[in-house]
Amino acid sequence: MSASPPPPAQMPSPPTLFKSCWSCRVISGSALLFSAAFVYQAARRTLRQGGPTSMGTVAQIVFASGLAAWGLVVITDPVGKATKQSKET
């Protein structure tokens, strides 16, 4: 006779870097936002001085927007806030 298969292992929750440390998230997220502003201003300074729009300038602006998005994600901490909706019949 065959034995029943073992129950599936539960998925461990993903480790959060800052756990519930609100001040850690605010400080690091703000640092990312300020660095995004710095990179963006450096790219804008080149454009304001009449320089041509090069791929490097575009890359700086894209990198700055990525830093800003990362800073907002660190501050808002969306991981673990969404709950799985179970459909009840």
From TrEMBL:
<keyword id="KW-1133">Transmembrane helix</keyword>
<dbReference type="Pfam" id="PF15055">
    <property type="entry name" value="DMAC1_Dmo2"/>
</dbReference>
<protein>
    <submittedName>
        <fullName>Distal membrane arm assembly component 1</fullName>
    </submittedName>
</protein>
<dbReference type="InterPro" id="IPR053117">
    <property type="entry name" value="DMAC_Protein"/>
</dbReference>
<feature type="transmembrane region" description="Helical">
    <location>
        <begin position="55"/>
        <end position="75"/>
    </location>
</feature>
<dbReference type="InterPro" id="IPR028036">
    <property type="entry name" value="DMAC1-like_dom"/>
</dbReference>
<feature type="transmembrane region" description="Helical">
    <location>
        <begin position="20"/>
        <end position="43"/>
    </location>
</feature>
<keyword id="KW-0812">Transmembrane</keyword>
<feature type="domain" description="Distal membrane-arm assembly complex protein 1-like">
    <location>
        <begin position="20"/>
        <end position="66"/>
    </location>
</feature>
<keyword id="KW-0472">Membrane</keyword>
